[in-house]
Write a structure and sequence with these properties.
The complex is a heterodimer. By secondary structure, chain A is of the alpha/beta class. Chain A has one domain (about 35-320): Rossmann fold. Chain A has helices at about 5-25, 50-60, 90-100, 120-125, 130, 135-140, 165-170, 200-205, 210-215, 215-225, 260-270, 280-285, 305-310, and strands at about 35-40, 70-75, 105-110, 140, 145-150, 160-165, 175, 180-185, 185-190, 230-240, 250-260, 300. In chain A, strands 1, 2, 3, 4, 7, 8, 9, 10, 11 and 12 form a ten-stranded mixed β-sheet that branches. Chain A has a two-stranded antiparallel ribbon with strand order 5-6. The longest helix of chain A is centred in the first third of the chain and has 17 residues, at about 5-25. In chain A, about 50% of the residues are buried. By secondary structure, chain B is an all-alpha fold. The N and C termini of chain B lie far apart (about 40 Å). The interface of A and B includes residues 161 and 209 of A.
Amino acid sequence: MHPKLTRRQWIAGSAGATLLAGCNANRPPAAPAAPPQVSILRAPAYDQSVYQTMRRVLATHRLDVRGLTVVLKPNLVEFEPGSSINTHPLLVHAAYEAFLAAGAASVRIAEGPGHRRITLDLAEAAGFFRIVPKFEDVFVDLNVDDVTRVRPRTQFSGLQKWYLPNTILGAGLLVSMPKMKTHHLVGATLSMKNLFGTVPGAIYGWPKNALHWAGIAECIADLHAIYPRKFAIVDGIVGMDGNGPIQGDAKPLGIVVAGSDPLAVDATCCRVMRIDPFRVGYLRLAAADLTHIADQSIVQTGETIASVATPFALVPGFRNLRLAP
Amino acid sequence: MKAGVPEVGAAPRQPCHPMSIEALIGRQNRDGGWPYSRGGSWTEPTVYAVMALLSAGQTASARRGLAFLGSIARSDGGWPPCPGVEMSTWVTAMVALLGPNQIGAALHERAIRWLLDTAGEESSSVFRFREWLLGNTMPAGDAKFPGWPWIPSNAGWAAPTSIAILALDKEDRRQPSPRVRNRVNAGRQFLLDRACDGGGWNYGSAHPLGYSSLAYPETTGLALAALHGVRAPQVDRALVAAQRFLAECRSADALNWLRFGLRVHGKLPAGYCTPSGVEFRTIPETSLDLVMTAAEQGRDFFWA
């Protein structure tokens, strides 16, 4: 016997079918030409050793950045003393030094926090002015950077045009440097969700509510497609679990995860956090054929996932993301 | 180190001027507008700079700023955040604050109309009907009183609602209108409904996803200004929080709005001056400091 549909179920089902039909209009990213490589490096603390760790990251991935304009995009959300909300400034500075040493023409640090307008005050409170010499000279507040209108290659979100910062659009290499955190709206926030910080608040507001209305997962997938030249370095030295990305608890792991394929990097981070990447909406959407996030298609170097994996506490709405034992 | 809460009537400190009017004029772009800190011209910093210049009697540079703003007005009555953006946004309220004598009567009237026609999407009947169909429940009060969004078709938020209230309240005092007054009152109720438990305002809901949100100094100051003349327990709690923020906070932007919010409620310490060591890094921070200082000396652009 077929169950009888209520009016709401019928409408929701019809809407879902329409959406699925619309998905055919998208152009999913092709399968990677070569298997994506993701490295997991031990980094026990925020100390001088992270400078060596960063040089190892670049060497491991044979990154040729000679002559390129490199933009480092950390995750700077809010500042609470003793919390682990933001990418640690020491790690960002270590990356800054490593990319310059590797021959980058210039390295900028850029971020557009999504909650508060006082970007430089947040950066100061988070320690960036103390740790990065002449921080203001190398930093760009993406919330108020000059913008260019962009029409995305994919149309997951339905947003026909985006206004995005020239600093990011002009980057020879965009390095997403998130904190490894759980997120109460999407499950996990890693290198791809970190791209939300490239969307200018001076146009879209604080928070960037337009992205919520258009669909968070869909917007992440669109942004991933808009920026073609990316590298990801995830701060997993101390992450955050529970009610992330702000009110969660510090989660020490002592690792840095990196790679040229953000999908593969985020999928690896999910496995480290004991989250099933196939159940994270934006990864499924952006990966389309799923080869970017399947563990058998990722070349894992450095530490094994098993040796560093630890379950991140999940808020009730996302406990279904837990990776099966 | 945390300082104590300052008391009203504390001893005056030396006045401080983070950037001179001349330096502000020197940062004006060729098109007459101002950047946030560097680069092209944007609507918001231009409005603040024009306010600062008019407060100081520098009309020539202000006129060039006003001409820039007039040149980018959109056909729907609103303003874009910067030239080239094909969308009217919350900055329309900033321009409306300038008043008809500055921006021109026709443009000002259209800006007021744009504000009256704009509301957070969550308060629209279409959205509420859709939520009902999907079986979603909204927290009580979340949709009852319309606030203002950052951009149309989005939800209402504390900061754009506060700026819109300031603009419409100013308009209602200039030219009383029941429609304007009703939106101001509804907007104020929107803010009161979103006051944080501990006093003050976050950028949005006080309990997103069931968790208590913490107040931000800058939003608290701004919302208090928009609640000028309102007596409510939420306002009382926010004033206590704002005085605490004023003593502890070292953000120029936050301190500007806190000064404003406390002053309109008569709670700004007499002779208050921004503490030394606070960095004024952007055009809005510098301009607002000048505007607030002028207001404290009786030349109040937000209310006059």
